[in-house]
Amino acid sequence: MDQLTLISLSIAILFLPLLGFIVVILFGKRFEKLYMFEVGVITLTFLLSALLLVVKLTSYIDDKIQYAFTWIDFGNVPLIGSMQIDLGINIDNVTAIMLVVVNLISMLVHIFSIAYMKGDKRYNRYFAYLGIFTFSMLGIVITHNLLMMYIFWELVGLSSYLLIGFWYEKKSASDAAKKAFIVNRIGDIGFFLGILILFTHYKTFTFDTIFAQIAAGNLPFDSTGWLTAAGILIFMGAVGKSAQFPLHVWLPDAMEGPTPVSALIHAATMVAAGVYLVARIFVMLTADAMLVIAVVGGFTSFIAATIALTQNDIKKVLAYSTVSQLGYMVMSLGVGAYAFAFFHLVTHAFFKACLFLGSGSVIHAMHHEQDISEMGGLRKKLPITYYTFLISTLAISGVPLTSGFLSKDGILAGTWAFGSLTGHWLIPIFGFVVALMTAFYMFRLVILTFHGSPRNREKYDHTHESPFVMVMPLVVLSVLSIFIWYSPLPHDSEAGWFLSDWVRTPATVVPAEASFDFMISDNAANANHHITHSAKYTDAMHRIHYPAMILSEIMAGLGILLAFAMYQWRKIDPDKIADKFRGLYRFSLYKWYIDELYDEVFIKPTLTLSSANAWFDNKIIDGVVNGSAKITVFLSAISGWIDKYIVDGFVNFTALLSGFIGIIFRKLQTGKVQTYIVLVVFSVLILIFIISPF
Amino acid sequence: MNGFPLLTFLTFIPVVGMVIILMLPKEKTSFIKYTTLAATGIQVVLSAAMMINYNYGAGGVFEQASFQFIEKFRWIEIAGLSWLGTVKIDYFMGVDGISAPMVLLTSIVAFIATISSWNISHSLKGYFALFLLLDTGMMGVFVSLDFFLFYVFWELMLLPMYFLIGIWGGPRKEYAAIKFFIYTLFGSVFMLLVMIGLYFSAVETLADGSQVFTFNMLALMDSANYTADGILSPFNPANLRFIAYIALFVGFAIKIPMFPFHTWLPDAHVEAPTPISVILAGVLLKMGTYGILRISYPMFPEITRDLMWYIALFGMINIIYGALCAMAQRDFKKLIAYSSISHMGYVMLGMASLSTTGINGAILQMFNHGTITSMLFLLVGVIYDRAHTRGLNDFGGLATQMPVYTGFVTVAFFAAIGLPGLSGWVSEALVFVGSFGVELIRVLAMISTLGILLGAGYMLWTLQRVYLGKLNEKWKELTDLDGREYAMLVPLTIIIITLGIYPSLALDIMNTSVNTLVDLITTSAPKFLLSGM
Prior knowledge:
The structure holds 2 protein chains of 2 kinds.
Chain A: H1 3-27, H2 35-59, E1 65-77, E2 81-91, H3 93-116, H4 123-142, H5 146-164, H6 171-202, H7 207-215, H8 224-241, H9 250-253, H10 259-268, H11 273-280, H12 287-308, H13 314-334, H14 338-365, H15 378-381, H16 383-397, H17 403-422, H18 426-450, H19 457-461, H20 468-479, H21 497-502, H22 535-568, H23 574-580, H24 582-589, H25 594-666, H26 673-691
Antiparallel strand pairs in A: 1-2
Chain B: H1 6-23, H2 29-52, E1 68-78, E2 87-95, H3 100-116, H4 124-143, H5 147-168, H6 173-199, E3 203-205, E4 211-213, H7 217-220, H8 241-255, H9 264-271, H10 274-299, H11 301-327, H12 332-352, H13 356-387, H14 398-401, H15 403-417, H16 423-436, H17 442-448, H18 450-467, H19 483-501, H20 504-522
Antiparallel strand pairs in B: 1-2, 3-4
Helix pairs in contact in B: 1-2, 1-4, 2-3, 2-4, 3-4, 3-10, 3-13, 3-19, 4-5, 5-6, 6-8, 6-9, 8-10, 9-12, 10-12, 10-13, 11-12, 11-17, 11-18, 12-13, 12-16, 13-15, 13-16, 13-19, 13-20, 15-18, 15-19, 16-19
């Protein structure tokens, strides 16, 4: 298969789900069975992407296959010269793997939903939304430039909005949808500003062109500070989408959406897009930017794990665990363990999708009960769900023989190496403590849901195992959570094809003085080798590998043991502990009060400001307008009065006066000659008197 | 198309329709309606013909030769009027990349507003006659290249608009109509003064070698035409051009409307009938920004450069202030009126960048705002016709009752929010690319991005309050869209989606002219004296 065919294939993969969306949204009302079209389309998309992956890995394993076209042509721009905006696609190994992961999970979720959503009044529309989501997500994966990344980034935001608010009759659902969109927008503004920095300087959005320019020493506005800023700002997009602190608040609320949606969008794919974005810009991250990313990721994984410890809603536990695991991936990128971050993204996608679909199976069986304090003992009723759920739980806890063990172990070793090389020990501490908490809360969830005796007998009696279309995806996903798919050795991920041949850490393009020294390869020959870090880093990783593995197993074992002691064997009473650490318990239960804080600090002031603004507009600005109108009317009244009484008054007065004088002088016109003579004589006398010189 | 007076037809077809309507007896209501539809329909066809024959490579802006569809002949000629000298005014029309999108927009919006006028209930004859007169005024403004002619059309719009709001409007229609009329007149008085000032400052050399004062816009863009002692001449040491620029700007700013001259807009919108709101938001608001690009920028490039920061500042204020006000509204139409103020702020911000990306974004935003906001007003009209209320808190759950309608609402709302894939985003993004790229206004651009967030806030909140949630039992009887409503919403939706996916369709029209304009203002300015730089 030549490259052009491969490009056409990937374009077909991208647009097929869009076709599904358009057909189903337009005709879904008319044809009841049209959802099957969407399911078929996704299945085809999956098969095509599997074919693409095979071809890519067999024929073009070291190639980047790209295709671009001019989207907007600004012609000959004054002072700049010709300027275009290009869009295009890029297929490297990471892309090809992601295409398969996204399409596989999307297909399984489609199939799962056939039974799960049965009877919903907007059944077809649900599948249409899944279609547009898949399209948008594939767009993120396949892009070769920042602008298209941003476009599809917002489009997954839209599909997320539509699907979280799918049951919009519930206020909580429409609230959650709105919150998700707006919180994501905050991150996206940062993302957009980061893109603007790069575009303003390089006049292109294309990743490779920008990276080549940076590598050639052409920095944004000629400063590493701006490069750091661009990196951190673009990372803000990931903070929103991948639910990192402080923008993580939308993800737990997003559980208002149908559970298969939570599995697809809010666990496996969309929320991992942030990690994918950071991976895409990984080579241009400066040391400062990486440190910020590592700290944000580490802190997020910690905060989310502490909250997950006490939640009683099965989906909320999983949601916080997702936040925590995403924090792991982000932290991993921050410490330079690029390959492990992507590896964990893939393994997490499978086992977390399995966990969410498993919880969906439970919720379905329990007739939409999500509270684990109402469950218990479901192991006997839902055996397949139970065992698949258990395998995935082992994977997320990092127990050997699972995929999670391989990827998590690499991340923890990476943080440890980072700590020893840079002195930032807080990050590995976050990593290992979270490993313990993860194992604990996940087994707490398993035990409270499936073990022991049922706490709500009535509901328990009505449960039964889910139909085939629902358990089949669970089985597939749990099988994918076993190590063998990724590495022949259960304890050494780097021995596996995934890390040794497929996914390689790209060499950084940041100037040496702005980068961590261990990120710069000391050996030019290493550039094609899979580890492009310095020898110092490679040594540290090798030295730390086994201690890190042992420590992480101790942590996981302790967590599991503690969970069994507290919830299975009842050796320790969890309520007593909660009582003893009342403050801490409530702090965790109420999610660190972050929502309340945001409400007080951001939402209420914004609403107040907006009312104040509207008042100002209405009373002051418009007041001035109406006031000047009133003043004009008043002035015109005055001038009217003046006109009537003064100006016209003067005119009338003049007339009046002349009339008056006339009346007086008329008296003189007597018509008698004697009177006239007397008057003449007197007048002459007066004149002589006045004129005479004496 | 050579020789065919396309722009004259485009401008005066509505007047022909008006004359026909005035001759009809007023009982023939459907005949009146179809006459209007035919007139605006022919306009759409003619502007499509214009686009088919359009030369994408021609710059226009200041050069007569690269304008297209030119019509120029002597209109008014008064010989030897004492000290005034000989008055010669041309009938001069033409389009370039700045006006062509506006012509297209005007014909589309007028056609759709006609469909929306179908259910106007009383005094149909007067309504449609005035409507068509308004249409001529709007079209004339966009195609005029003579300042005098421009001014005539500019004032021509005022009268029909006044009556359309004042007679067919809502409860406070008189107040709104008078406010609109006086406010706009206030602005055009400034414009008139500047126009006369410019007239006495520049001369045009005629074929016979004699020189006369001129209203020719293109002549006014060339410093070589100004006399040494003309009152607004750049050579005049008592430089009054700055004051003239401000006066002219205020005249245009009222139309945009720019803070703090914007308060006529919410009142006018709330009281105007739906189709008039559509015209107002879709076309009339663009007059202000169009005037700035067509007149202020090329005639006063040196002052434009000096004041770009302030233009950007007011753009930023419009964006954020408008969005915050919108968030506090309880009336659906008022909310959209304030969102218009916010969205027109992007146009100003883009213009202020004086860059190709920014001005392209600004003109595209003018077009997109015209289609998106028209659609929003039509959508409000749809429920207002059925429910006779526009209170945002009176509804709830309409998505269940009117799913197709809500589908259109979702498209329009997300277009207004600036969702990629829909047209509004492209122009907003270009505005930010342009304004962020200029160091002087970079900080203003960064602050303005808050508008994106606030926009999502008030739009989604509205979506939630009106359309999501449980259906309010009161509205159980509401019906979904009918055929006429489809006819007006579908074309707009298609435009919004098409331009979102392939914006070059519109950008290619304007791009050459924008480059010419940017070149005229910013670089060595071949045509204009660089006094301020």
